[in-house]
C-alpha cells in the first residue's frame, strides 16, 4: 500500500486533506456532519484510494447514522473525485472507496477492559493489605532451624538414659 511507495504516500496525504476539507466546507449534507477521515491508503499504481472514516454518533443510533453517512459518501464520491483530480493535478485520478474505520470503536472497548482490570487490581491490593496468613507467616523449614531441632533432640535422648 502507501508504505512502500513514497509518491503514493504523498498522494494519500493530499487526498486526505482534500476530502476532509471538502466534507467540512463544500458538502452541505447533514449526514456528514460528524464524519472524520482517519486515514487514506493509495495503491502503488495510484488506481484506488481507500478512505477510512469514522463517526461520532449518538448513543444507540450509531448503526443508522453510519448507514446514512455511507450513503451520503457514496453519493458524493464523484464530486469528491473531481475535487481530488483538480487539486492533485494527476493524469489519472484514483477511484475513491470509503471504508468505515472500526479501530476507534475497538479502542474504546479495549479502554473499558483495561479500566475493569485496573479496578480489579485495586480491589485485590486492598484485600491484600488487610489479609493475614492462615498459619505461620513462613511455613518452610530453614537450615538454621533444623540444627536447633537436632540439638534439642540430643538433649531429650540424653535425659531419657
Structure description:
The chain has 161 residues and is an alpha+beta fold. It has four helices and three strands, in the order H-E-E-H-E-H-H. Strands 1-2-3 form a three-stranded mixed beta sheet, with helices on one face. The longest helix has 27 residues, at 62-88. The radius of gyration is 33 Å and the shape is elongated.
Radius of gyration: 33 Å
- Alpha-beta content class: alpha+beta
Task: Give the oligomeric state of the chains in this entry, treating copies of one chain as homo and distinct chains as hetero.
Answer: single chain
Shape verdict: elongated
* Separation, N- and C-terminal Cα atoms: 92 Å
Contiguous low-pLDDT stretches (5 residues minimum) are none
Largest sheet: 3 strands, mixed
Give the key terms.
3-stranded mixed sheet, 4 helices, about 160 residues, alpha+beta, 3 strands, single chain
